[in-house]
Design brief:
The complex is a heterodimer of chains A (about 90) and B (about 550).
Chain A (H helix, E strand, L loop, with lengths): L1 H27 L3 H22 L8 H26 L1
Chain B lengths: L23 H4 L9 H5 L4 H29 L10 H37 L7 H23 L13 H5 L4 H28 L12 H33 L12 H35 L6 H14 L15 H13 L1 H15 L8 H24 L1 H7 L3 H31 L5 H28 L13 H31 L50
The chains are: A mainly alpha (about 90), B mainly alpha (about 550).
The complex binds copper (II) ion.
The site of copper (II) ion has 4 residues of chain B, from α9.
Amino acid sequence: MEQARKRLATVWLALLALLALTVAGSFTVTGAASAVVSFGVAAAKVALIFWFFMQLRTEKGLIRVFAVGAIAWLAILLTLVTIDKVTR
Amino acid sequence: MTDVPINKRADPNDIRDRGLSETPEERASYLRAGHTLRSWFLTTDHKRIALLYLVSVTFFFFVGGIAAALIRIDLLTPEGDLLSNEGYNRAFTLHGVIMVWFFLIPSIPNTFGNFLIPLMIGAKDLAFPRLNLLSWYIYVIGGLCTLFVLVAGGVDTGWTFYTPLSSMFAHGQVVMAATAVFIVGFSSILTGLNFIVTIHKLRCPGMTWGRLPLFVWSHYATSLILVLATPVLSITLALIAAERLFGVGVFDPKLGGDPLLYQHLFWFYSHPAVYIMVLPGLGVVSELVTAAARKRVFGYWFVAGSSLAIAAVGFLVWGHHMFVAGQSMYASAVFSFLSLVVAVPSAVKVYNWTATLYKGQIAIDPPFLFAASFIGLFVFGGLTGLVLAMLAVDMHVHDTYFVIAHFHYIMVGGTVSAYFGALHFWWPKMFGRTYPMVWGRIMALLIYLGFNLTFFPQFILGYLGMPRRYHVYPPEWQVWNVLSSTGASILGIAYLLPFVYLLWSLRYGPPASANPWGAAGLEWTVPSPPPKENFVETPVVDYPAYNYPMEMEEGARG
Ligand SMILES: [Cu+2]
């Protein structure tokens, strides 16, 4: 119990650190690199939330398939929108 | 189809004999399990929640129908004489918003899906009964917000809320309308989640995936779309509100946004939403067709798999709404091709239904007539969808009445026919009473005729170039508009008919047996109406789906 609470607190602090990174990045990094930084940090945040807060760490099989499905569908949205944007 | 004499009156000398006013099955049923308002509004019984939905979606169907009536009356003449330009914009916006989110999307899943999925898979209820009740309350709150919009002056953006009109220029209750749709979206998500978990976890012993009724398969596919697509709509509407209220630059190019991004996000939800609306209808028709033919469904796995294929491929085609919006032509070509691909699983279903009916002993009962109209109208709507998916043709007919006619063939000709087919097929199960068959047949025919008279002329109008969302048009188009409005009034009368004979049947209809149609499926093994707990004993299934007796042909007997 104690250990679980400690783990959640650590993850939360990590998320706050990543948030600070997003804010700092938006002021310092510009151009194409800015997108890379903000998407990279966002992906790290999502991974932490999926793995610890949504407890995929302890789930298996079907539940993980559904979680991957959600990401895959987001990827469909972003990919096809990007195809339009870059070839317009 | 009844084994109890009609007009059985209570014996006046026997105080316990209540005649037909209440059958023993009714006394033991979910309908009589509690008579207080509280027992209805705080129920967690999936069957009662289904009835709560039945009443509320019917209400919104008629509110949306009134808006449609105003539109059709205004279009009787080439001048805009009934409504002002503003008023006309508000009428078609409310018609769209109410019909899409408050009727079509919840119509079949939340009434028949709610009522039937547990009965069909041998469960006592959905996996999360209280979540189910919550989703009805969320629906009602969203509905009240919409009614508030209606009273407070309406919106004029069209049901698509396109930017920059909705974010920068439109007057009226844009934020409130978006809030209503945002709220009702959570009702969809919760229902989808509930169905997915129920179908995974609560199947009775022996009810393998390969023995699930096709109705359940199509609701499973629908639920996946509900869960995957609806959040995108919610976020998109929140972004509109953020831009309108706080000037956050998402869609406005002046602030660094992209107006086409809105259309991408909106149609990423709204094209799959077409399948949210039609997949449950496809599931209903699979049930009605096998029951009418009294035969096993032809190609079970193809019909089941095509539901999943439609759900998946349906997510890859949204750009066909943006061919003339400034989307890159390479993206348009990809979306055009993928839109043709999604026709394949839809066609698989139609071929399999036809093959199921082949050499069946078809009963021309109301459910079959609705299923047959569905198939015809769905094919016509689907084929004109292929026409619209062609890049060059779409240039000509984009935003014309051709598009309006096309999607009404799918949504009204398809989904609404399936909805009434389901209502006529499962009514005896839900309420334990049968209705006069002849009235059901008359209604099915009137709907079919009225529908075609309303919407076929709109294909011609669209081809001639009449744009959607205008109420002033050149006089030479009046004849087609008058035909269309005449059809709409037939349709309106037909939609009112069930109020007479279905409500009549509740009190005076002959009691229905457990299986009045002689259909296969677990829901027909319990009394009509079903008891509160659905099954006294958990059923065990050791036979395939649609276990109708096989018939050999003369020659094959050997
Ligand atoms: Cu579409």
